[in-house]
Specification:
The protein is mostly helical and 149 residues long. The protein has 4 helices and no strands. The longest helix is centred in the middle third of the chain and has 36 residues.
Length: 149
C-alpha cells in the first residue's frame, strides 16, 4: 500500500509541477512573441482549461501528501511530510488569494478590447507563477527526501 501511495503521490505532484513549469518556461515565453490579439485569445483558452483542472489537481496533491503523513505518522519522515504538506497548503492559499483572481480576469478578456494593462497583468501573473513553481518544487523535494529516509 505505501509503495503504491508513494508512486501515486510522486506521479500526481510531479506531473503537476511539470505542467506548471512548462507554462512558465515554454508557453508564456512563446506567447510573448505573438501579436496582442492572438496572445489574448490563447491566454483566455489556457486560463480556462488550466483554471478548471488545476484546483482538482492541487487538492489531490495535498490529499496524497496528507495521506503519506498519516501513514508515516510514527516514522522519522513525518516532519518532512508535514513540511511538504504544509508548504503545499500554503501554496494553495496564496494561489487562491493572488493568482486565481488574475486568472479569472484573463478568462474574461476579449481579444478585441484587451489593453496593454491586461497584458501587463498577465506578466504579473507569470512572475508570481514562477515563484509558485519554485515553491512546489521545494514541497516535492521535501516529499521525495521523506520517502527515501
Amino acid at each position: 500500500m505505501t509503495s503504491f501511495l508513494g508512486i501515486a503521490t510522486t506521479l500526481c505532484i510531479g506531473l503537476m509541477i511539470g505542467t506548471e513549469f512548462a507554462v512558465s518556461a515554454f508557453i508564456n515565453p512563446v506567447l510573448e512573441k505573438l501579436d496582442n490579439r492572438t496572445r489574448v485569445g490563447i491566454i483566455r483558452l489556457f486560463a480556462a482549461k488550466l483554471g478548471f483542472a488545476m484546483p482538482f489537481w492541487y487538492c489531490l496533491g495535498l490529499l496524497l501528501l496528507v495521506a503519506e503523513a498519516i501513514i508515516f505518522r510514527h516514522g522519522p519522515q513525518l516532519p518532512l511530510l508535514i513540511s511538504a504538506a504544509g508548504l503545499w497548503a500554503a501554496i494553495i492559499v496564496l494561489t487562491l488569494l493572488f493568482l486565481v483572481p488574475i486568472n479569472n480576469r484573463m478568462m474574461r478578456l476579449s481579444p478585441d478590447t484587451a489593453s496593454g494593462d491586461d497584458l501587463r497583468e498577465h506578466k504579473k501573473w507569470d512572475s508570481m507563477h514562477r515563484i509558485r513553481v519554485i515553491a512546489l518544487t521545494g514541497a516535492m523535494t521535501l516529499f521525495l527526501i521523506a520517502i527515501h529516509v
